[in-house]
Amino acid sequence: MESQETLIQELRRRNEEAKQQRAYLIPVWQKISRYILPQHGRYFVKTQRDRKAEFGDILDNTASWAHGVFVAGMSAGAFPASVPWAGLRMRDPELAANGIGAEYCEAVSKVVHAIFAQSNTYPALRHCVAEMGAFGPGCLVIEEHEENVIHLHKLTAGTYCVDRDFNGYVVALYRELVSTVGAVVDQFGYENCTTIVKQAWDQRRYSETVEILHVIDERKQRDPTKADSRNMPWRSVYIDQGARDDEPPLRESGYPFMPVLCPRAEVVGDDTYGTSQAMKALGDTSGLQHKHVRIGEATDKMTRIATQGPADIEEVNTMPGMHTRTNGAARIEPLAVPVLPIQHLWQQIVEGDHQRIARAFYVDVFQAFLGDTRSGTTAREIMARLQEKIQGLGPLLGNVDHELLRPLVHATIWFAGQRGMLPPAPDDIAGQEMEVELSGPLYRALKAEQSRGTMQLIEMIAQLGMVPGWDQVRDRVDIDAAADELRDTFGAPARVLKSVREVQSVRDARAKMQAAQQQAAMAQQMAGTAKDLAQSPVDPGNALGRMAGEAAQ
Q1: CA 454, chain centre distance (Å)
Q2: Cβ neighbourhood burial of 391 (10 Å; 0-12, 13-18, 19+)
Q3: In a domain, 471, yes or no
């Protein structure tokens, strides 16, 4: 009978299986690290000394520059640190339409942004977007922090693997990290460490490296009635890679939700890791380095020409202003006169690579205003072109929305609630859920196209309402719904617009006043008519006389 595998054996096996599924990406990621982002990516195959040498492999940094523009543009457009970008509203459509809970949602949003500002959220988000643009997936692990409420651990390509379910959600993370004996004992406690680590600690070998495997996955067996860390829905296990199979893990705890945020830049089908902008530009980027080597060689051939001359001349000095002695009529002349169109090669080939790399990283989107210097171009025309370009960012922004920012906001709200930092919810929204509304500049720009259609429709209906017989078409317009849509598009605070319920009393009072004014006008008109009739003479030839005659008969 086969013996049941231990916890350490199971996690090691699953980690190796996940690494096998990821193996096809490692050569691609290593190439991206070599030519675009040397400071990112850890593959456990090179020493730190070798990694530092890789910076010298970049002869043309166009891709690195374009990647930097991409990261800066995404950071400023999706989650700017200077302004609030994550709003909240009630998930119930009826409550949201009536503005119920709007003030509470705004108060919670302020708490969330305050936590983001005091923690490492913004550097971590920039790191995640940088990883997405380079390798496809970015990965953060959100943990509770004693002082800052939350802390985001930044992972880089090659140090982790993930499993996803049918819906694309992360259900397991396998994270490999290297620490020291001193750090491991400090983090997990001497009594929880393996025999090897204890021996190293006892011998004061504190700087000796220790390889750790951290696994976060769904807990298959638990007691839902218990709230301790060993019975939470998600499990967190740290093991020493050098431990024996029968040794316990360094630590086992849990989470009430999946703390791993692993967004992908672009996704095709059920791809676990997705693709990136750097992958699209990798051919041009690697070819560009080769072309720079060849252009350098061509430049050397033109400036340091190979020579030929008599055999008795042992040394030829080619430095400017120097003299080489020869015998008689002996001459030193070029071995071959190089005729190389260096300028043509640079402009026609290299600059074409630069343009394709820039387009792959959406540099034309993030620098749209800098690229148009033609005179007579209006701001409206520039915004219209920028609007069209931003539509191409839709899939990327959608992934950042659903796989990164929304889960981060909901997790932060949970941690803030555990700390008692949230205001008490009003009775009319108690137990109701909130949903996230992203209002960064890029997300507002995506919504602006829809709002532009709304404004055009309202303007056309207003014009049609002035045509005789078409005035009733204006009754079809829901002005309140249009105002709410425009507020969402421009990211204005909820307090700017009153709820329909709040303005209903004002509208009712205005309607009563208008009705009273109409009744007063009608009464005044009737009184004037009666006065005129009273002062009119009764003559058999006029209408009053005939009416009096008919009444007498």
Answers
A1: 27
A2: exposed
A3: yes
CA distance 127 to 154: 7
Instruction: Give the CB-side neighbour count of residue 16, counting CA atoms within 13 A.
Output: 6
On whether residue 505 sits in a domain, the answer given is: yes
What pLDDT is stored for residue 117 in this prediction?
Answer: 95
Q: Residues near 347 by Cβ (< 8 Å), separated by ≥ 6?
A: none
CB atoms within 10 A of CB 489: 21
- 216 in a structural domain: no
Give the span between the Cα atoms of 37 and 22, in whole angstroms.
Answer: 20
Q: At what angle do helices 351-360 and 277-303 cross, to 10 degrees?
A: 160
Within 8 A by CB and 6+ apart from 282, the residues are 28, 31, 32, 35, 36
- Band (pLDDT 50/70/90 cuts) for residue 377 is very low
How is residue 140 written in tokens? Answer: 């953060």
Indicate whether 46 pLDDT > 50. Answer: no
Query: How many percent of the chain have pLDDT more than 70?
Result: 75
Contact 245, 8 (CB under 8 A): yes
- As given in the structure block, the two tokens for residue 345 are 């090669």
Helix, strand, coil percentages in the chain from 3-state DSSP, rounded to 5: 55, 15, 30
Residue that finishes a domain, picked among 455, 482, 509: 482
- The total domain count for the chain is 2
Residue 250 lies inside a defined structural domain of this protein: no
Q: Which structure tokens are listed for 508?
A: 């009712």
Q: What are phi and psi of 130, to 5 degrees?
A: -60, -45
Rounded distance, CA 222 to CA 233, Å? 8
Residue 478's domain spans which residues?
Answer: 440-482
Q: Which of 482, 510, 540 is the last residue of a domain?
A: 482
Q: Which two tokens stand for residue 99?
A: 């503005």
Contact 246, 195 (CB under 8 A): no
Q: What secondary structure letter does DSSP report for 348?
A: I
Containing 153, the helix (H) or strand (E) segment is: strand 149-155
User: SS3 for 487-530, per residue?
Assistant: HHHHCCCHHHCCCHHHHHHHHHHHHHHHHHHHHHHHHHHHHHHH
**303 pLDDT exceeds 90?**
no
End-to-end CA distance of the chain: give it in Å, rounded: 124
Report the C-alpha gap between 529 and 384 in whole angstroms.
60
| Mean pLDDT value across the chain | 81
- Provide the pLDDT for residue 342: 59
Cα distances (angstroms) measured from residue 345 to each of 204, 299, 359, 474:
61, 12, 21, 64
List alpha helices for 322-471, DSSP H. 342-345, 351-360, 363-366, 368-371, 379-390, 394-400, 406-418, 441-464
